[in-house]
Write a structure and sequence with these properties.
The chain has one domain. It contains 1 helix and 2 strands; from the N terminus they run E-E-H. The longest helix is centred in the C-terminal third of the chain and has 20 residues. The mean pLDDT is 69.
């Protein structure tokens, strides 16, 4: 099995960039439920990007 990593590129509120945070697939699986909750809450609040 090949280990895959993913690089997350995002910004903190205020525009401070975060680059190079590398997650393994296990790490993504661990945070996926939290991300799903965040996206669901944002969509419910009408904050999706147009």
């Amino acid at each position: 099995m090949t280990e895959r990593t993913y690089t997350i590129k995002t910004e903190l509120p205020g525009g401070a960039p975060i680059h190079g945070a590398v997650l393994t697939e296990d790490g993504i699986n661990a945070i996926a439920p939290l991300l799903a909750q965040l996206f669901t809450a944002a969509l419910a609040a009408g904050h999706e990007n147009d």
